[in-house]
Amino acid sequence: MKWNRLFVLCLTGALALACTACGSAASSGSAASGSAAAGKDYSQIIHDARTDEYNEAYFILTPDKTGKGTYAATDGFAADLDAEGLSTQGEMLFQMLNLKAEDVEDYAISLSLMNTRSYAVAIVKPAAGKADEVKKAMQDYIDGQKQNMETYLPDQYEVAKAAKLVETESGEVVLVCCEDAENVLSSIEAALKA
User: Fold this and answer.
1) What is the pLDDT of residues 127-153, one digit of tens each?
2) Rounded distance, CA 102 to CA 126, Å?
3) Which of 104, 133, 160, 189 has the highest count of CB atoms within 10 angstroms of its CB?
4) CB under 8 Å to 15, separation ≥6 — which residues?
């Protein structure tokens, strides 16, 4: 069972690289940032909470507020994604986090598509009455990371074990699974309160 999941993660990562390699320059609508309706820019909050290394390595997926598509992205290799590649990446991220679109009102998600790194930072505003579903999906992601990394990559297992999952007073569900998770979470929580 563990090897089947590893195979699926490897296959997903290969697909992600293939989509990126085939992609053309991003359309001008793909650089929209998150949560304008709520007055909070979730994408910027994640960007500010993480290091330059993470900002260069991992894109942040948000809903497309321009109406030109389903998803938008910033940071990482977002500029290399065309509309089709962005759609593929978005669907993979939602699948990997076990999230359903109907359970989510707004979000910014950054996630490693490769199974060699325990990395996920997400701010999700659940749809009305869906907070429990969103928290369960994200907890399932953390549990899966711990299971996959336990004997495969011990250093990444430690990262997964230290993952944080909280629901804020303003209703966002925040997942932080990365090195220095405590400080990244503190930065995100402070920005959400501001």
Assistant:
1) 999 999 999 999 999 999 999 999 889
2) 9
3) 160
4) 88, 92
Quote the distance between the C-alpha of residue 126 and its chain's center: 15
* Residue found by looking up tokens 């679109």 in the block: 101
What lies within 8 Å, CB to CB, of 41 at 6+ separation is 33, 34, 35
**Cα–Cα distance between 59 and 141 in angstroms, integer?**
19
* pLDDT score for 66: 78
Burial 50-89 (b: 16+ CB within 10 A, else e): beeebbebbbbbbbbeeeebebbbbbbbbebbbbebbbbb
What is the average pLDDT value for the chain, to the nearest integer?
Answer: 83
DSSP annotation of 25 reads P
Q: Rounded CA gap, 148 and 126, in Å?
A: 27
pTM: 0.79
The number of beta carbons lying within 10 Å of the beta carbon of residue 100 is: 14
